[in-house]
Amino acid sequence: MNKHETLTTREKLIEAAGKLFGEKGFSDTSIREICKDADVNIASIHYHFGDKAKLYKAVVLSIFDTPANRNFLKDPGNPSDAPDIKLYKYIYQHLEHRLTMKMKTWQRNILLKEFDRSDSILTDHMIQVIEKKRNQLEAIIVEFLGEEEDDLFINLCMDSVIGQIQYYHPQHIVAKRFQSELINTPDGVKKLARYITEFSTKALLAFRDERKL
User: How far apart are CA 144 and CA 138, in angstroms?
Assistant: First the structure.
């Protein structure tokens, strides 16, 4: 079976362009090379994307346009859940998403290139994702502390929770060295989510009681 047989023309172009952009970069990749690898005619790029720059943008954004990533944007909690349950689901969602997220080599290469650019086309997309997830966490923190709490303190508490999640990233050099089992296994991720939730819940409740005095 041909490697592109089950793909649409648009998908063929994104896959072929992604591999070439990831290996050679944008400037050193030609439209002719992309079309040859995708086994389509050159007019296909203009028809589906307009030009090479727009194709590149579509390739980059396609890395995040997956069922797993779309599901990640959803609020994992239920309105009827207690705040600590909502917090656990939020934390677990982050850790589990990182554990199960799979990337092709070309996708990883392109992201590394984009993260080094000050004018990355990922900027707007990442800001939207970050804002959506922060808004979900903010609602949980407010349930712990009360709506009367000031915005700065709420944001600092959010940063504390996010900081713990970020520390246990599978690629974090210290976490990889000392907590490999926790960050790289399903059971470990559940234990880690419970720990961060318990630690953060106790801290948030202590803050709430202390600041009410």
Answer: 10
pLDDT in tens, 112-167: 888 888 788 888 888 889 999 999 999 999 999 999 899 999 999 999 999 999 99
Is the per-residue pLDDT at 69 higher than 90?
A: no
pTM for the complete prediction? Answer: 0.82
d(CA 83, CA 62): 34
Give the Cα separation of 87 and 85 in Å (integer). 5
CA dihedral 56, 100, 98, 139 (to 10 degrees): 100
CB distance 167 to 159 below 8 Å: no
Which domains, from first to last, does the chain contain?
A: 9-62 (1.10.10.60), 67-102+119-212 (1.10.357)
